[in-house]
UniProtKB/TrEMBL annotation:
Keywords: Heme, Iron, Metal-binding, Monooxygenase, Oxidoreductase. This is Cytochrome P450. The lineage of its organism: Bacteria, Bacillati, Actinomycetota, Actinomycetes, Kitasatosporales. PANTHER family: BIOTIN BIOSYNTHESIS CYTOCHROME P450 (PTHR46696:SF4), P450, PUTATIVE (EUROFUNG)-RELATED (PTHR46696). It comes from Streptomyces heilongjiangensis. It comes from the Bacteria. Belongs to the cytochrome P450 family. InterPro entries: Cyt_P450 (IPR001128), Cyt_P450_B (IPR002397), Cyt_P450_CS (IPR017972), Cyt_P450_sf (IPR036396).
Amino acid sequence: MDRELHAMLDELQRDPYPHYARARAAEGLTYVPELDSWLVVRDADVREVLRRPEDFSSANALRSDVMPAPAALAVLAGGFGGRPVVVTADGALHQALRAPIVRGLSPARVGAVLPYAAERAAALLDRFEKDGRVELMAAYAGKLPGDVIGRLVGFDPADVPALVQGGHRLEELLFRPLTEAEQIAAAEDVVAMSHCVDAFVRARRADPQEDLVTDLITSVAGPGDAELTLDQRHELVTHLQNLFIAGHLTTTALIGTTVLHLLRHPRQWELLCARPDRIPAAIEEAARYDTALQGFRRVTTRAVTLAGTELPAGSPVLLAFGGANRDGSRHPDPDDFDITRTAARHLSFGLGVHACPGSTLAREQLRITLELLTRRMPGLRLADDQRIVMRPTLIHRSPETLDLVW
């Protein structure tokens, strides 16, 4: 992708909502060259695509915006991964990959990790509560979700920071323009992450537990402690990296955008402090208003017609959950942030066979966060001396930094 086109993509990703509004107002679908996709932004159209996985394949769901240089690809070849994951699989393969993840994120297992999540959240707040100022993304939002998903999966806490870093570096490598030297450095971090996960998988195979990882291993290699084949190791590393990255990056983004918009609307923040029973409604409104996962790609498996637009087989489309969540036909006054609104079901966590299995865990971490902040730091406000800049990505939309004072 050339520099000019990438600059246009950056502009679109940092504030996609005007583009969504124009696409909703247009007849049929809108093709967006920067995304190399047909943009699907109306609530009804996004739902239709999600309900027709046989016609709209997920094979390109995580297609990169940038192709790494050959030197970076050579480094990546020394790691583990590169196999299909649940978000890029269809049909029977998708069901097989999804089943152990759904079991691993069952209400019982999520409930079991919540006391740790509450304890960890409080400990993070303890570190800066007396300071009167904090950059929330680095000090809190970027730490809690990785710790929690790491605990649920069973990773050694000492490994979690490097795994979180590896997830960020993989996103940079696939979605940001980097120099060749920067790409190689990012690839080295990704390979280090994959080797760490591989060592964890082999250790768990030798010593099975009642946990998500053992379920995943059994689904791939069957029961027992027989040594994993190289191909099985690649497959398991791919699954776990995808699960871990999705489990921390999206929730980190959701915490950041939720706090940002509550504090941009001080009266709603004050209402939430006075009425903490409204926290669940605030979570849903924040997820709708500025969706952390703005969209996923799909590709047509046959010739179809969507919103009056004829799409040949192989046509790329981008399902803009963030655009659908601002559709006034479902959400009155959609551009208003209002935690008192009568909520209609949004699409922030998907729908149908690809609905996010980790949505409960994400919501619970946000609930814990808002309960702590409203109780312990009701005077919280945005620092005056900052310019809020959103990260240029549709995968994990959030502020790059968020300076708060109290």
